[in-house]
Fold:
Amino acid sequence: MDNMVKVFERPRSLTDAQFSYCPGCHHGLVTRIIAHTIDELGIQDRAVVVTPVGCSVIMYEWFRCDGIQAAHGRACAVATGIKRVNPNLIVFTYQGDGDLAAIGTAESIHAANRGENITVVFINNQIYGMTGGQMAPTTVVGQRTTSCPNGRNAQIAGYPIRFAEVIAQLDAPVYVTRQALYDQKRIMAASRAIKKAFQCQVEGRGYSLVEILTNCPTNWRMSPVEANSHLMNEVIRTFPLGDFVDRD
Amino acid sequence: MAEAAIRAGCRAYFGYPITPQNEILEYMAGHIPAVGGAFIQAESEIAAINMCYGASAAGVRTMTSSSSPGISLKMEGISYLAGADLPCVIINVARGGPGLGNIAPAQGDYFQATKGGGHGDYRMIVLGPATIAEAIELVMLAFDLADKYRVPVMVLSDGMLGQMMEPIMLPEPVDPTLLPAKPWALSGARGRDPNVVTSYFIDPGDLNRINTQRQSRYHQIEENEIRYRETETSDATIIIVAYGAVARIARTVVVMARSQGIKLGLVQPITLWPFPYAPLRALSSQVNTILTVEMSAGQMVEDVRLAVADRAKTPFYGELGGLVPTPKDILREVKRNVS
Structure:
């Protein structure tokens, strides 16, 4: 056993507390990738997580770094306040589609437009998870939810918002990308994107947004495998992957 | 008031333009960066109060200001500040309401300021200045009380004070680096366990415990921090209770009434929460009448009546819509209640 090498372990930036996510949900993956990134960049003692309202509201119990809970939609304003008075901190928000792209649209756009030196991780699972599966601003046309039981009707509810593309229209953001996690290749790419977004902040370059297409097997009423196939075959037709802004 | 905030050690200001308090935003835009502080003209009052929430959590003395409709928007954030035990100073240069109302002085925000406004079981210290000198003194005090009790503190001013000029003595500036440390603040988990700032406690037992502890802090505030000013009350048979700009006008009324042989006194509550119930209760057995005067349809008068009960008559005189009562108007009401 002496010659065994440990090749995989819990990131040091995670506590021992158990995640409260549903089985098969991508939230756990993203949380882990962020913790791994914090380890790699050696910023655990400077990091501050701004948690949203939603399934990841108690994220501050999982990260071994300072944390603050923000009112629904207000995470980017809270992050702005922290970063402006202590620029040495590495401040990131973790927000769902309802939080970032509905109730918090103004705060999200204006923090980006000011070029706040923060990192925004945007979880786009096209549904309101914690409240039980209602329509989100990102719900794709035709998708059934508890508040559009016959499927999203664009005549009534409009079309899903492509938030990364909206943010990419602004002059200030330095890195804006959309990633997914439905297979190993995508997970690796998303990990690189998250690391790059945090690096932008560490280097003082400005605002970055990583939108991640994620699943919600529970509220989509799908198995995790079906949910991943749905992402790969259906959702990316509405939400194309790739970098939208990558300024040097 | 903006200069007083800087002298109190405020190093973060976030606001949004609204009349009649734009002068604070404009003053801060130039002056707070000059002392190394943070200034942002936010996209909304909601964003501004949430920037305060972040900056305060990071351990810095923080302020926002607005006027009535904008204060309504800040109520969500104020509830979160209270729930997360964060100090913050909020100036309300109140104007006529409800709705868009107008930009004239009014006191229709008393209920909102002193009885909640936002959701949940919380209290906010509310200070009511009657002159610019008092406003400066109370802004300095607001930062100290906010830090001492870890609560949001509102300075409830009005459009009259907000737009007036008078000579004042500015206090000596506080060096923010010499203020007591905030070990709970977000500063990076270096050599210590992570700090968490939250108002979220999913377990009812936990929330009950946290809320009960907070209530006991509120009781301490009620015991230690009640402030009010009495004028000519010792031999008075009738007393006016008024705060803010109306208290200032009532001081003139006391002089006018006394010159006509009416034994009029004045009680000016300075802390609107905690309200000076006990002193009013004590005076109520000495006088016949306690007349409350407000620029509202009658809000503080409910607290006066709670204090006085049926020990004295408690009439009310109010002007609505941004009209300011003149000394003559108030004296007329005094005379009506003496005869």
About this structure: Chain A has one domain: 27-246. The two ends of chain A are 47 Å apart (CA to CA). Chain A has a mean pLDDT of 97.
